[in-house]
Design a protein that fits this description.
Mean pLDDT: 83
Structural class: alpha+beta
Distance between the termini: 145 Å
Radius of gyration: 47 Å
Largest sheet: 5 strands, antiparallel
CATH topology of the domain at 231-333: TATA-Binding Protein
Shape: elongated
Low-confidence stretches: 1-11, 14-37
Strand order of the largest sheet: 5-9-8-7-6
Helix content: 40-55%
Length: 333
């Protein structure tokens, strides 16, 4: 009886070899690639040639490099460590940013305080006038206290002039009294000058506050009348060096004598005094040279004090103010 199954065809020897090899590999386990074998590094050597290795060279560890996978695709770029200069710049940038943030917060706090302190711009201007008036009050008090001393010095100079006209010698006691009186007046004017110099920072402070307040409140620019009443032209004039100060002092004396009577002038070291009186008003002019030490600037101060003769109240006319305002321009031209 014929066999119902046909004999199997013979398997080629090469296929059987491959199959057997596969079985052996499955039995023994396929070796896995390590992480180091999977990662590649691309770097440039000293000759400028691009190199690909599984480990970066020691000389390149401190520099930037690119990490590649097993098929050469970039997986990570490692930058070089920062230099000392870059670290310094980074620290300086951090400091500047922190300082800028601090100033912003400080300005916010100042703005809030400014708006809480002054409800309107008029309140701010009123506060400014109050601060200036607080400085001016001791100045007026000192002027009042000086008037008897000025009268006394005037009489001493009249006595000296009478003796000189008579051809007589001036006693040492009289000369000492004149010198002592001039010293007292010079010290008093030094106090007035010191007080007057305090006005400058007050004006500057309130000018900045007013400008900031207007910006925050979106107010229009100030009118000239709003900042009137205490012109900076009355402030002392400073000079440096013998040449400049000598020139300024000569111009100051010329200006002083152009508005006073030379016959009534009293001159002492760094001090000129003069009077101009009529039936209603008494005006006293003074020009002072003041310097605390050789290292400090010289200040030239022109003072014009007007009082009503009956009431001794302060008086001032437009002409008086023009004389005060013209002093700075005449000296510093």
């Amino acid at each position: 009886m014929r066999n119902r199954f046909t004999p199997a065809r013979s398997v080629p020897r090469s296929l059987m070899t491959v199959a057997l090899l596969g079985l052996c590999l499955l039995a023994t386990g396929w070796p896995e690639r390590s992480d180091a074998q999977k990662q590649m590094y691309r770097w440039v050597d000293e000759q400028g040639e691009v190199q690909y290795t599984d480990q970066p060279p020691p000389a390149q560890l401190g520099q930037g490099h690119t990490r590649l996978n097993e098929v050469g695709v970039r997986t990570e770029t490692i930058p070089p460590p920062p230099t000392e200069e870059e670290l310094r710049q980074a620290r300086e940038q951090e400091r500047l940013q922190a300082e800028a943030a601090r100033l912003i917060e400080q300005q916010k706090a100042a703005d809030q305080a400014l708006l809480q302190t002054y409800r309107t711009i008029d309140d701010l201007l009123l506060a400014r006038r109050g601060r200036i008036a607080a400085i001016e009050a001791p100045i007026q008090a000192k002027r009042d206290a000086m008037r008897p001393e000025q009268e006394h010095l005037g009489k001493l100079h009249e006595e000296k002039a009478a003796l000189e006209r008579a051809g007589k010698a001036v006693p040492a006691s009289l000369a000492d009294s004149i010198a002592q009186s001039e010293t007292h007046l010079r010290e008093s004017y030094a106090f007035i000058l010191e007080q007057t110099l305090k006005k400058g920072p007050v004006r500057q402070e309130f000018a900045q506050n007013a400008e900031r307040y207007r910006m925050l409140k979106k107010l229009p620019a100030p009118t000239p009348s709003e900042m009137a009443g205490d012109p900076a032209s009355n402030d002392p004039i400073s000079c440096q060096g013998a040449e400049q100060c000598g020139q300024y002092w000569q111009r100051a004396m010329d200006y002083f004598r152009a508005h006073t009577n030379p016959k009534d002038e009293i001159a002492g070291p760094g001090l000129l005094l003069s009077w101009r009186k009529d039936e209603r008003e008494d005006r006293r002019f003074a020009l002072i040279w003041a310097q605390k030490s050789a290292a400090d600037p010289v200040y030239l101060y022109f003072d014009l004090d007007c009082r009503e003769r009956l009431t001794a109240r302060p008086c001032s006319t437009e002409q008086d103010q023009r004389i005060r305002d013209g002093f700075r321009a005449a000296v510093t031209r």
